[in-house]
Amino acid sequence: MTTDQQTPDELSEFADLMRREEEFPGRRYGIDPRVRRARRRRGWIITAVVFALLIGGSGAYVAWALNAPLAAPEAVVSSAPVVAAPAPAALAFPSQGAAAISVSGGDAYFGPTASGIWATSGTGEPRSMASITKLITAMVILDARPLADGSDPGPTITFDKADHDLYDKYYVMGATIARMPTGSTMSLRDALATMLIPSASNYAEAVSTWAFGSQGDFVDAARRWLAAHGLTGTTVVEPTGISPRNISTPADLLTIGKLALAHPTIVNIAATRSLSLPGPGGMSNTNTLLGVNGINGLKTGNLGEDSYNLLYSARLDVGAAEPLTVVGVAMGGATRESLNTDVIRTLDSIRAGFQRVPLVSEGVEVGSYSTPWGSTARMIVADDASIFTWSDTPITATMQTTTPKTYEDGEVVGSITYTAGPNSATVPLEIDGSIIPPTEWWRLTHPSELAER
Question: How far, in Å, CA of 48 to CA of 52, rounded?
Answer without folding.
Answer: 6
